[in-house]
């Protein structure tokens, strides 16, 4: 029983409106769900993905306008990757990033693939990674109504980088989920140990986690421009319950079963303090909206629908109509 790869990543923004503009108009991702943080309904939870928001394509954001900026450090999800189909797509993105004044590095090679390191306007550290040499098929299909041509569009999530002071406990937690060591690559910072590449399932870019040892950083302070948690894919609710039993057997403190309506979840922190989630592949985002208009109106799960008037009164309007 192994997880299938990365399900979604959830980061933090200070402006839902600016976030929506960047990820849809510049990166060309589709907003597939505009809902609220179910634990704090005064905050939006925005889900961006491929044309349907398939698992493995979702980059999501909590909107926390009163939060401070993140302080980079250990015990963090320090970099998130987005996949494109080819090296030719990276050439397109270099031109697009220049056109839109997106801070970025030139195309380089990292962990056997060509990449572009870049960041959004709030300082979130991101990577575009080419699937040119990836042996595993793309997770999703770019939306054909995106401003980015389909052949260059973002197809899903790539490797996630976890930065920790001591890698062994994090590796042990990943091994519980079925990850094994694939290889090691040279550190990005001189004087630091090699980065350990862990993979799960069929492997490939969408099923890799990079564990980066760093002894030169303080602990991260989470905030705007940082990543809140990473979620890994499990098949269905039956398998999730089996995972709950397995995580309980390890004595790792955890949330138990959590109903998120669009998927079902389990949360726990690995020993270095990074928040992991296990999330089911379904039911999906077309459960309560037509596929054609995903993300255009505020969607609420049934257990929050009775509070809609109060929720809408306490959240800043966000126009996501197309």
TrEMBL record:
Signal sequence, start to end: none
Pfam families: Glyoxalase (PF00903)
SUPFAM superfamilies documented for this protein: Glyoxalase/Bleomycin resistance protein/Dihydroxybiphenyl dioxygenase
InterPro entries listed in its UniProt record: Extradiol_RC_dioxygenase, Glyas_Bleomycin-R_OHBP_Dase, Glyas_Fos-R_dOase_dom, VOC_core
UniProt superkingdom: Bacteria
Residue ranges occupied by any VOC domain in the UniProt entry: 5-131, 156-281
The protein, known as: Glyoxalase family protein
């Amino acid at each position: 029983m192994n997880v299938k790869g990365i399900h979604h990543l959830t980061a933090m923004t200070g402006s839902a409106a600016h976030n929506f503009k960047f990820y849809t108009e510049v990166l060309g991702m589709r907003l597939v769900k505009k809902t609220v943080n179910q634990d704090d309904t005064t905050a939006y939870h925005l889900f961006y993905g491929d044309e349907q928001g398939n698992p493995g394509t979702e980059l999501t954001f909590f909107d926390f306008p009163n939060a401070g900026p993140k302080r980079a450090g250990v015990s963090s999800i320090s970099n998130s990757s987005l996949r494109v189909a080819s090296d030719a797509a990276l050439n397109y993105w270099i031109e697009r990033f220049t056109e839109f004044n997106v801070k970025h590095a030139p195309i380089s090679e990292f962990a056997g693939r060509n990449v572009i390191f870049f960041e959004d306007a709030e300082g979130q550290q991101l990577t575009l990674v080419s699937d040119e040499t990836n042996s595993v098929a793309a997770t999703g299909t770019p939306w054909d109504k995106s401003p980015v041509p389909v052949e260059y569009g973002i197809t899903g999530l790539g490797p996630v980088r976890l930065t920790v002071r001591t890698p062994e406990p994090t590796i042990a937690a990943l091994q519980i989920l079925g990850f094994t060591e694939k290889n090691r690559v040279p550190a990005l910072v001189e004087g630091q140990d090699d980065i350990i590449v862990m993979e799960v399932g069929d492997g490939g870019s969408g099923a890799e986690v990079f564990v980066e040892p760093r002894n030169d950083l303080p602990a991260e302070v989470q905030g705007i421009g940082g990543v809140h948690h990473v979620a890994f894919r499990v098949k269905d609710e039956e398998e999730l319950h089996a995972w709950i039993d397995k995580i309980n057997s390890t004595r790792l403190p955890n949330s138990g079963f959590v109903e998120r309506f669009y998927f079902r979840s389990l949360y726990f922190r690995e020993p270095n303090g990074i928040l992991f989630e296990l999330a089911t592949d379904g039911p999906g985002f077309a459960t309560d909206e037509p596929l054609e208009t995903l993300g255009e109106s505020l969607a609420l799960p049934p257990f929050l629908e009775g509070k809609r008037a109060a929720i809408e009164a306490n959240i800043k309007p966000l126009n996501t109509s197309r």
